[in-house]
Design a protein that fits this description.
By secondary structure, this protein is an all-beta fold. Helices cover 2% and strands 42% of the residues.
Length: 268
């Protein structure tokens, strides 16, 4: 299935990147199980959560990848996690460099295009689904961040879609608080697979749920112009959830995020 929006006059959409998860493993030439700053032990939580990402937590079967978050014992020591201990192991997929030490190139980075993943996420308090983009910058000085989806597991109806710019200090979102997805429906999206997409072009950034446009950002001067990488993962009990008093209640739970495909289309 192609993008839900027509290409510009005189252009057509071309599939530039895809991982369809049709075999018994994902393509390690396209995706890494760690964040960009991996130096050997994979990587840990991005927002002071409980999870340490491990390659073992990404499995592929029956046409989908499963990113599983499960209790980790003994805990993995890392200052990034709550109280310096990661008590969960989790799965992540990104197009980042496999290692930050060996001068490797990004597995995939691109400028402008329509990005979409078809996913099924758990509606469980304390688990957090994230599908997003960061600049492919080896100095980690990110001026922008494009969140295709942030989903707090206690509320499977609010699909947070956000563009952070100007040093990530300013944000735009189609959402008007909880229980609002811009022009898109508010319903329980955890019951079935859902298609989450974003159309990133020089003059707009537009978000889509199941092919319906939810809202768009049109300040051309602030739209990212540099190559971006893709990241899909599940966090556990991060600072946002704890701040809203919807953190993890039961630290024995195992949950998984399932992804049918990840695709990028570009106009040519």
């Amino acid at each position: 299935m192609g993008p839900p929006v027509a290409a510009a006059a005189g252009k057509s959409w071309r599939l530039a990147f895809s991982e369809e998860f049709t075999g018994s493993d994902y393509d390690h030439g396209k995706l890494s199980p760690c964040f960009d700053w991996n130096t050997g032990d994979c990587t840990s939580t991005f927002n002071n959560g409980r999870e340490h990402y491990q390659p073992s937590q990404v499995t592929v079967s029956n046409g989908t990848a499963k990113l599983t978050a499960a209790p980790l014992s003994p805990a993995f020591a890392d200052d990034a996690c709550q109280s310096g201990k990661c008590t969960y192991k989790a799965g992540l997929l990104s197009t980042a460099r496999p290692s930050a030490q060996n001068g490797a190139k990004y597995l995939y980075a691109f400028t402008y295009g329509y990005v979409e993943a078809r996913i099924k996420f758990p509606a469980t308090q304390g688990f957090f689904t994230a599908f997003w983009m960061l600049p492919a910058k080896t100095d980690y000085q990110y001026q922008t961040e494009l969140d295709i989806l942030e989903l707090l597991g206690d509320d499977p109806s609010t699909m947070y879609m956000t563009y952070h710019y100007a040093g990530r200090d300013t944000s735009y979102t189609p959402n008007s608080g909880k229980h609002n997805n811009g022009a898109c429906a508010v319903k329980d999206y955890s019951k079935n697979f859902v298609r989450m997409g974003v159309d990133w072009q020089p003059d707009h950034i537009a978000w889509y749920i199941d092919g319906k446009k939810c809202g768009q950002f049109t300040n051309k001067a602030q739209i990212a112009k540099e190559p971006m990488q893709l990241i899909l993962h599940m966090m556990v009990d991060n600072d946002w959830q704890r701040r809203w008093n919807v953190g993890l209640k039961d630290p024995t739970l195992t949950r998984r995020l399932e992804v049918d495909y990840i695709r990028v289309f570009q106009q040519v």
